[in-house]
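fyi for ur records
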Amino acid sequence: MQTIPIFFSVNDAYAPYLAVALNSIKENASPRYSYRIHILNDDISAENRRKLSVFDCENFQIRFVSLSGKLSTLDAGGRLSSHRFGAFSSLTIYFRLFIPALFPQYDKAIYLDSDIVVPGDISRLWEEPLGNNLVGACADYSIQHIAPFMRYIDEYVGVDHRNYVNSGVLLLNMRRLREVDLAGRFLDWLAKYGLETVAPDQDYLNVLCWDSIHYLDPSWDAMPSERICFLENPQIIHFNLNAKPWLNESVPYDDVFWKYARRSGYYATIRRRQKAFLEDTEAVERYRSGIDGLIKMAVELTSAPLSFKSLISSRKELRLCS
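which gave:
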C-alpha cells in the first residue's frame, strides 16, 4: 500500500484546530492508501501530543517532529537566527520551505496549514500530476479584490496578482525542490536582502517558484471570503486571514468545521475559547483590525526602493527556474 506523506507546521495554541483537520482527513481519506502525518513543531505540550495521537493507527500514522535542531544543522551559517522577523511572522511560518531538504525519503508530499478542514478525499490531491513543476497550489482569491494587496503583489513581489498562489495548501515536488535547492536559495535571499514581507513564506514561494507552478482547482483551497463565490463541493476549506470559525459567531463553511470539531476531542475547548474571545471586546477589536495592519504594511512596501520585483528584474537567476 502506497503511503502519502502529509505535513503540518503548528505551535501549541493551534493543536485543537489541527485535531479538527486531522479528524476530517481521516474520515474522508481513501482506504487505498496509508497516510503518514508529520507535525512540525517546537513546543507542543505532552497533553496535546497525547490527544492528537488518538488519531494514530496502522494506516494513519502521527509523527511529531521538532525542527529547532534540524534547522540549525541545515542553516550552519546562522542565516535564520540573524534575521529579524516582522510583527506578523515568526520562524515557524517558514518551516514548510525546508520540508524537501529535511525529508529526502520523499519525492512528493502534501503540506497543509492547520486552519483547514478536508471534506474531500486527500488522496485525490496526491494523485494530481505535477509534471516537472516545483509545486501545485491554488491562486489566492482572498486578495483578488483588495486593491492595496493587488498592487503590492504586482509592484513589490513582482508576480501577476491573478496567478499569485496561497501557500496554505501545497503539493510539493520534493525531488525537484531539492534539485533546485529551495531551502538554500531561500536562506541566501534572507541573508543577502532580508526583505520585509506581508505574507512571508507565501511571498518567497511565489517569487522563487514562479513559472514552475501547477495551478490546482480552486476547490482544493476554498476560502470563506465575502469577495469569493462559495463552492458547492469544496475539497479543502481554508479558514485563512480573519475567517476563523473559532473567533467569529458565524463565517461561511463554519458548519463543516463544527461537524468535524465535535469528533476532534477538543470541541468543548474550542467552544470555551470562542466564548471567552467574543466576550473580550478589546481582543475582538484587535483581531478584526488586524487586516488593516497588513494593508498598511502592503501600501508602505509597495513604494519601497528595494523589492523582490527590482531584484528579479536585474537578476533573473534569483528565481529557482530562471
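Residues 82-89 have pLDDT under 50 and may be disordered. thats all i got for now
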